[in-house]
Amino acid sequence: xxxxxxxxxxxxxxxxxxRAGYTPSVWRAGRYGLNDxxxxxxxxxxxxxxxxxxxxxxxxxxxxxxxPEIVAVEDTMRDRIREATDAVLAGSSTxxxxxx
Length: 100
Description:
Elements: E1 4-8, E2 13-15, E3 22-23, H1 34-42, E4 50-54, H2 67-90
Antiparallel strand pairs: 1-2, 1-4, 2-3
């Protein structure tokens, strides 16, 4: 099952676990299933304010990250956020961000 993060373009941070605030850290961000992530993203009522992106560990076969993978996560997530935001504003979805 895929795991998602919710990014707030308003706060420039990820939603924390249980919708309890925001964090700039991808590692401290809350993990949500697709339905919960979509629900979170829809609460603002403003298209593109909050977007869902695939968590970096989603669909991994190995439970641990290598050092180069950890270093690359921030850039990967920044790209996913940009793609998801662009897709939401354009009214479509993306494979990596599954924006809605």
